Amino acid sequence: MPGISGRAAVPKDESIGMKPVEAHVVAALSELENALGHGFARPELLVRALTHRSSASVQVPSEQEFDDGSGEAAAEAGDNERLEFLGDAVLGLVVAEALFGAHPEWQEGELTRVRAQLVSRQHMAEVALAIGLGSYLRLSRGEERGGLRRRSTVLSNTMEAVIAALFLDGGLEPVRAFACRTVMGEAADQLARELRSGDALGNYKSALQEHLQAVRAGTPVYKIRSESGPDHRKRFLVEVRFKSDEGGPGKPLARGMGSTKKHAEQDAARRALERLTAAAVKTPGAVSETKEEEQAAQ
């Protein structure tokens, strides 16, 4: 298709109806643009992508809405939900294209499984956290107090909206570059290794449960051992044990860390699988903490 990656081929959505963005807003977004690897010719697209429906509905600027101290902030009507729809489709296309070119040996099922992991809500929330996207969200004052900036669903949706803004402003090329560097990167390489080895493609909790069931060792149970860090950079330490059929307390298998409880559980399951595989035993026993886990528990 001619011009598919060029700026001229990008449609302008006149229904968005956004106003020009004030200079102080553009300046406040410069760090995010650096993380995205793209300077916006139409910064109002990026502002719209960062606008949660709570902020758009009440039209009340919060202190986080790129206020320069003058009390003025961008107040374009509308939220980012339309952009989420477009961003999801664009991301799926770009990731599918990259996987198709990088792995000619994969069949449709393999391509589909890996793409699903890379565009999943969990992974997109991780990408959003990695670039600090939550701090740029435009929220109402009420939602600001409710901790919406750290909610994985909001982060993943906003990340999709930002990808749509990249596409509308610069075409597919900036989306390709961002996806290759941040969405795929090491995650795509890890998923490819897991696919070759027959692992569960990132779902270590399911893989651990299947392993324990196969050797009749019981069921994995996860428990939060500690939380640390400020609210916007929480770290969770989770321990996984196996609960025997006899109903005993179970022996510890491993501990894992992550920015959310789910991520910490997945990390704990991954470590447990690695140890069980390395030990090559049918009945897992107690395991000692690694130096990293000991430090995290302190």
Give the topology.
Elements: H1 23-28, H2 30-36, H3 43-49, H4 53-58, H5 81-102, H6 108-118, H7 121-130, H8 141-145, H9 152-170, H10 172-197, H11 204-214, E1 219-228, E2 235-243, E3 251-258, H12 261-279, H13 291-297
Antiparallel strand pairs: 1-2, 2-3
Helix pairs in contact: 3-9, 5-6, 5-9, 5-10, 6-10, 7-9, 9-10, 11-12
Structure overview:
The chain is mainly α and 298 residues long. The protein folds into two domains: 16-197, Ribonuclease III domain (Ribonuclease iii, N-terminal Endonuclease Domain, Chain A), CATH 1.10.1520.10; 204-297, Double Stranded RNA Binding Domain. The chain is 52% helix and 9% strand. A three-stranded antiparallel beta sheet has the order 1-2-3. α3 runs antiparallel to α9, α5 packs across α10 (172-197) and α9 (152-170) packs across α10 (172-197). The N and C termini lie far apart (57 Å). Residues 1-11, 58-77 and 280-298 have low confidence and may be disordered.
- The CATH C-level class name of the largest domain: Mainly Alpha
How many H/I helices?
Answer: 13
**CATH second-level architecture of the largest domain:** Orthogonal Bundle
Give the integer mean of the pLDDT values.
76
In short:
This protein folds into two domains: 16-197, Orthogonal Bundle (Ribonuclease iii, N-terminal Endonuclease Domain, Chain A), CATH 1.10.1520.10; 204-297, Double Stranded RNA Binding Domain (2-Layer Sandwich), CATH 3.30.160.
Keywords:
single chain, 298 residues, mainly alpha, Ribonuclease iii, N-terminal Endonuclease Domain, Chain A, Double Stranded RNA Binding Domain, 3-stranded antiparallel beta sheet, disordered C terminus
